Amino acid sequence: MPLSLREAVRHDHARADRAAGRADHRRYDDSNKELSRCEDGADELRSCGKAPALEGIDSWFNTPGDRPVDLKSLRGKVTLVDFWTYSCINCQRAVPHLRDWERAYKDAGLRIIGVHSPEFAFEKKRSNVVSGAEKLGVTWPVALDNDLTTWDNYRNRFWPAKYLIDAEGTVRYFKFGEGQYDRTEKMIRELLRQADPTVVLPEPTDRAMDDLAADRTPETYLSNLRIRGYTGTPLVDDKPTVYRFPKGTLPLNKLSLDGTWTAGYENFTAGRDARLAITYRAKNANLVLAGTGKVTVLVNGEATKTITVTGSPTLYRLTDDRDARTARLELRVDEGLQAYVFTFG
Predict the structure, then answer these.
(1) What share of the chain is helix, strand, coil (3-state, %, to 5)?
(2) How confident is the model at residue 316, as a pLDDT?
(3) DSSP strand E in the chain: where?
(4) Contact indicator for 272, 257 with CB cutoff of 8 Å
(5) Is the dihedral of CA 328, 1, 159, 106 positive or negative?
(6) Parallel, antiparallel, or unpaired for β 78-84 and 110-116?
(7) pLDDT tens-digit profile of 176-193?
(8) pLDDT tens digit sequence for 128-156
(9) Contacts by 7-13 with C-beta closer than 8 Å and gap 24+?
(10) What's the pLDDT score for residue 187?
(11) Where is 94: in which H helix or E strand?
(12) Residue 132: what pLDDT?
C-alpha cells in the first residue's frame, strides 16, 4: 500500500508565515533519541524510549473545562498520539479508523490524543480547528501545537502520524501516513492485553482500507514559493496580475491560471474572470478554499457542479469518481475567493 501523506520539509517550517517567526531548531537531543530504535509501521512492538512530553501547547479542547492532558496521568492506559491537521485530506481519511478504535477500545483502556500541528496559518486559529474537528466527528482530546513544539519532541515529519504509548509510558510503535490500519489496530490490541491480561476485547473493527492509487496526482500547493508543475504566464508575487492559459493541451500534473489572480505566499486570491486549470489523475480532486462566493467546476470542458464557498478555509470535494481517471479540471472562481492546496485521492 503506497503512502499518502504530507511530508513536512523543515526549511519550509522555518519560514515566517508557516511558523510565525519560529526558528528551525528541530529537537534532536537526549530527551527523544531513543525514538530512532523504532521504524515506521514495524511488524512487532518495540521499545522506543519514554514518550516525549506534550509541550508548548497553545490550548486544548474536548477535555473537561478545556484543561490539558498530562501523559503521566494516563499511566495504566494505552495512548495513541495522533499528529494531524484538519484540512489535510490524508488526515481526514484516517479519522474514521480513529473513531472506530475509540468506540471499540475505550472501555478496555485506550485513550486517543490528537496533536493538531498546523501547516497553514489559518490552521492555527482555534475556532477553525474546533469547527473542523466537529465536522469530522473528532471527539477525543485535541491539543493545539501551534508552534510545533510537541511535533519536534516526537521528531515528527508527517501528517498524519500515529504513536502508540504503552501503560508504562513507553513509545512502542509508530505509523506515518495512511494505510496499514489493520497492523496499527493489532498493535493496539497487543498493548491493551499487556496492560491487562484479563481484558476482554471485541472483534477487530476491520474497516475497509482506502484504495490509494500509486499514480495519482500529488498534492499541489497554490503558493508562489511551493507551487510545482505551473505553466503559463509567469507568476508575479503578491500583485493582481492578468494570466492566460497556455495554448494547446495542458499536460498531466500541470496547472495554469487565467484571468486576474494575486499569487501570494500562502494562497492564490481570485480577481476578475479568474479561472484555474489542472490536468490530474485520481478518483477525486479536492481544494482548500476560503471566502464567500461560488466555484463552477468543469471536467473535460463540461460543467459538473457549482460549489458554494463560505467562511474559513475548508476542504471542498470537486470531483468524485468510482475509479481513477485522467481529466482536465477547470474552475471558474468568484472574485475574492482564496485557494490554498489541491489534494487528490
Answers:
(1) 20, 35, 45
(2) 93
(3) 6-7, 60-61, 78-84, 110-116, 142-144, 158-159, 161-165, 171-176, 220-221, 241-243, 255-263, 268-270, 274-290, 293-299, 302-309, 314-333, 338-344
(4) no
(5) positive
(6) parallel
(7) 988 889 999 999 999 999
(8) 999 999 999 999 999 999 999 999 999 88
(9) 7/157, 7/158, 8/119, 8/156, 8/157, 8/158, 8/159, 10/157, 12/226, 13/148
(10) 96
(11) helix 89-105
(12) 92
One-letter amino acid for residue 180 of the chain: Q
Helical axes 181-195 vs 89-105, angle rounded to 10°? 30
Assign 296 to helix, strand or coil.
strand
The whole-angstrom separation of Cα 163 and Cα 249 is 45
Parts of the chain with a pLDDT under 50 = 1-25, 28
Look at strands 220-221 and 241-243 and give their pairing: unpaired
The Cα–Cα gap between 178 and 40 comes to: 11
Query: Which amino acid does the sequence have at 242?
Result: V
Confidence at residue 280, expressed as pLDDT on a 0 to 100 scale: 96
Q: Which cell is 77 given?
A: 492506559
Identify the pLDDT of residue 325: 92
Phi–psi pair at 17, nearest 5 degrees: -70, -25
How many angstroms separate the CA atoms of 108 and 23, rounded? 41
| C-alpha–C-alpha distance, residues 191 and 174, integer Å | 13
The pTM of this model reads 0.79
d(CA 2, CA 128): 30
Please give the pLDDT value at position 213: 52
* Residue 13, SS3 per DSSP: helix
Q: Give Cα 114 distance to the centre of its chain.
A: 12
